[in-house]
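Tip: read the tokens left to right.
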């Protein structure tokens, strides 16, 4: 035994010595080209009622993820902001003979995780379950999807809880800043003008009749897709889904809003909107404007450009405001992609006494990425960041279902990600500068700052970024005070 241990020790010393001779520790190792992304094939079929079924087999782990998505989320709220998300959340609050506790108990017994909700574009029900209990779990999912009770007393209770949450959000500067920004960037009548969860006025009016009618008009099999990924075959998935959802029949449809809605137009000049939060220790800054469609041919260059600007920890905005200046715990930027183009947003929460200085740095970085060419090393680092993190988005059955769901929402081809990395790697410095100049326009931005107005307004006005206005939360109501430059 001692001889074995000694030999192992000598082997370790010898291998360490050899490695030290071969490695040059004065330079970081150079990354080679990223490996091609390997994704399991997507199999597709449909039911007679119009429901589209997509199956991705992944048999390494005995788990199955299902995602039922029905087109018609918050974009279908119309004059009742928050109705879609409220209806989606109500689905698992009672169905058939089960109340919310009965549904939760059944989930726990089956080892399942069932979630319901709605985003801007769809109502969704997700189910993650061990393969051995898939059949009864799918029956529970179908009950929740097709037989929701929407009892008036439960609707009232959930409405009151949502109203309390909305009122509580008025004390959260980051939420206030986001809502105010959206209300200012997107005009009245645009789906994104109002928050996805609605406001206090629209929430107060919610009742079981409204919820039932919204569900009846929008929850249709011919608008639905079911994604199944994990330890299952196409035949098994079709048999089970047909059994549970085959009898689902469409009802009268509501008009589904589409891209015919005109996107907001960038402002003629930059405007700063201040929301007062007396005695606030921090100022929340949100800067941006109208974004771009997900299917834009500039998408790949935009992804690389934004990674450099504010889309990663090593981005220019974060390195400047956090690491160099110490103004914030984090600063970043993003293009929010939705079927209707979302906004471009750069943001940070900074100390009150450096609010004006932080705005200077934001605009310094906006202009730098427009006016100077990105170095080859920085460009390579940004592209590698995107390429090397992508495989992590496809590791589990849930990841596969999520990524496929995104492709379907945007109408992208199923083989889209097979060419994603090569297209990212082809982006040049000239491409980055071109899209920066096109989409990052320092003279046409909306700036929202939530903070102690008495302390921050003089410094912001001195910057002469544009007109400065004080507005109530969420951008509603008349302007209290304004000044122009």
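Filled-in amino acids:
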């Amino acid at each position: 035994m001692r001889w074995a241990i000694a030999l192992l020790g000598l082997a370790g010393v010898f291998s360490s010595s050899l490695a030290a001779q071969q490695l040059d520790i004065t330079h970081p190792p150079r990354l080679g080209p990223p490996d091609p992304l390997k994704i399991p094939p997507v199999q597709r079929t449909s039911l007679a009622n119009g429901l589209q079924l997509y199956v991705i087999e992944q048999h390494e782990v005995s788990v199955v993820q299902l995602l039922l998505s029905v087109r018609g989320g918050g974009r279908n709220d119309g004059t009742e902001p928050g109705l879609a998300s409220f209806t989606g959340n109500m689905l698992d609050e009672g169905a058939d003979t089960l109340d919310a506790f009965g549904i939760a108990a059944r989930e726990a017994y089956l080892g399942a995780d069932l979630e319901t909700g709605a985003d801007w574009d769809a109502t969704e029900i997700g189910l993650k379950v061990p393969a051995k209990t898939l059949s009864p779990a799918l029956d529970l999912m179908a009950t929740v999807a097709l037989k929701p009770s929407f009892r008036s007393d439960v609707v009232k209770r959930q409405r009151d809880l949502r109203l309390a949450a909305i009122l509580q959000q008025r004390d959260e500067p980051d939420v206030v800043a986001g809502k105010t920004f959206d209300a200012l960037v997107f005009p009245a009548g645009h789906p994104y003008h109002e928050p996805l969860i609605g406001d206090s006025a629209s929430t107060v009016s919610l009742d079981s009749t409204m919820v039932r009618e919204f569900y009846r008009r929008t929850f249709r099999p011919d608008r639905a897709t079911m994604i199944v990924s994990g330890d299952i075959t196409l035949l098994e998935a079709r048999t089970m889904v047909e059994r549970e959802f085959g009898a689902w029949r469409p009802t009268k449809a509501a008009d589904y809003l589409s891209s015919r809605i005109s996107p907001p137009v960038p402002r003629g000049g930059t405007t700063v909107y201040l929301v007062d939060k007396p005695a606030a220790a921090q100022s929340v800054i949100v800067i941006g404007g109208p974004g771009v469609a997900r299917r834009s041919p500039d998408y790949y260059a935009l992804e690389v450009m934004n990674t450099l600007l504010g889309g990663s920890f090593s981005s220019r905005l974060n390195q400047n405001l956090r690491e160099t200046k110490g103004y914030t715990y984090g600063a970043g930027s993003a293009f929010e992609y939705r079927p209707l183009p979302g906004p471009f947003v750069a943001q940070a929460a900074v100390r009150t006494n450096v609010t004006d200085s932080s705005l200077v740095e934001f605009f310094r970085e906006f202009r730098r990425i427009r006016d100077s060419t990105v170095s080859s090393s920085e460009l390579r680092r940004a592209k590698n960041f995107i390429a090397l993190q992508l495989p992590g988005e496809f590791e589990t059955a849930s990841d596969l279902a999520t990524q496929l769901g995104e492709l379907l929402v945007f109408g992208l081809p199923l083989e889209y990600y097979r060419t994603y990395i090569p297209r990212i790697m082809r982006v040049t410095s000239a491409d980055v500068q071109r899209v920066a100049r096109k989409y990052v326009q320092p003279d046409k931005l909306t700036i929202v700052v939530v903070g102690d107005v008495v302390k921050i307004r003089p410094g912001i006005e001195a910057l002469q970024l544009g007109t400065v206005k004080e507005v109530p939360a969420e951008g509603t109501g008349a302007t209290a005070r304004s000044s122009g430059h």
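The first helix runs from residue 2 to 22. The first strand starts at residue 42 and ends at 46.
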